[in-house]
Every structure is written in structure tokens, then in C-alpha cells.
Amino acid sequence: MNLSVGQMETVTYVVTKDDTAHGLSSHWKDARYADAYLDVFATIRMIALMELACGRLLEAVQQPDELSVGVEVNVRHLAPTPVGVVVTATATYLGYDGKLHRFRVEAFDPGGKIGDGEHARAIVQAERLLGRRAETLDATVTGYGPCTVESRTSHRLSHVGFAAAQHSHAGYDA
User: How many CB atoms lie within 10 A of CB 112?
Assistant: First the structure.
């Protein structure tokens, strides 16, 4: 399958308490800091949702032993989204530039646009990438166990919280 300039992917997700700036800060509590954050969709979660849409577009051109990795992010977070609200992230393929695939990304909630920007991803051989990193980290990464594609991928998806995110191949219909 080919990937065409202008092709779009959309991912939809309901914001949970764990996706908020306040919810994320509770995982790294430190008595020295107040961590005064609101219960609104965290910028890092919005970016992760945008990355997911981009990554799903690239699945069409990846070989079975490949995956895509994010290498550049330039995103603006424009508006807060509270818990329980549906967020939709859309990635639009801009093309291939050297070793990087470039995307325009946007995120919306029912009130309108909440974020936009650009993102770049590279397609890599999973075992080769993880093998090189494992050598640097002495073959085991704390919290991940042995460096395998399966352990990294499943941990990443469950940690980010988008394993159950729904998606479609249609663009966002504003």
C-alpha cells in the first residue's frame, strides 16, 4: 500500500483523569513541589495522540520488522479540554524528506481546535534500533524488562493510555 501526500488519519479518545496535567503530576509526587496543575488534557497526552495518528498512517508503508519513531515535534496547545470530553487528533501526510516522513497535526474537541503543529517520524528496523539501545543500557531498561519490540510496544501503549483509542481513515470533518 502507498502513502499519498494529503492522506489523513484520525484518532479519537476520551480524556481521563490520568491524561490531565494534574493526574500525570500525581505519579511523580515530590514534597518539595506544589504541582499545582489543572484537571485538563495535558500537552504531552495531546502530542501522544497526534503521534499515534501519524504512526498509523505510516503502518501502510512499513515492512513487518519495522516501526515508526517520532523524531521532531513542533506543536502548540491552544485550549484546555476537561476530563470526559472527546478529543480527535488528525494527521495529514506532507511527504517524505530525506529519511523523515512529515505531517501536519491538529487536535479538536467539541469546542474547536485545541492544538496544531508539525511532526516528523522515521521508519526503523525495530530489533536493530532496540539492539543498539540495549547495548548502551546494558541489555535491560528499568521498568521495561528485556529490550524487545513486544515489551517496549505494549508498555508504551499501556502507559500512554491509547491502546483502546478508536480511529478511522477519514479526515476530521469540521
Answer: 9
**What's the CA gap between 79 and 85, in Å, rounded?**
13
CA of 99: how far to CAs of 64, 71, 92, 96, in Å?
18, 11, 18, 7
Question: What is the share, in percent, of the chain residues with pLDDT greater than 90?
Answer: 58
The DSSP string of 114-144 is: EEEEEEEEEEEEHHHHHHHHHHHTTTEETTT
Q: Residue 120's closest CA among 70, 166, 158, 64?
A: 70
Specify whether the CB–CB gap between 110 and 86 falls below 8 A. Answer: yes
Q: Which residue has the higher pLDDT, 86 or 159?
A: 86
pTM: 0.75
Question: What pLDDT, in 10s, does the model give residues 36-49?
Answer: 778 899 999 999 99
Per the structure block, which three cell numbers stand in for 173?
470533518
What residue spans of the chain are helical by DSSP H? 21-25, 43-58, 126-136, 149-160
Helix axes 43-58, 149-160, angle to 10 degrees: 140
Residues with Cβ within 8 Å of residue 138, at least 6 apart in sequence: none
Kindly report the backbone phi and psi dihedral angles of residue 98, in degrees, each rounded to the nearest multiple of 5, phi listed first: 75, -110
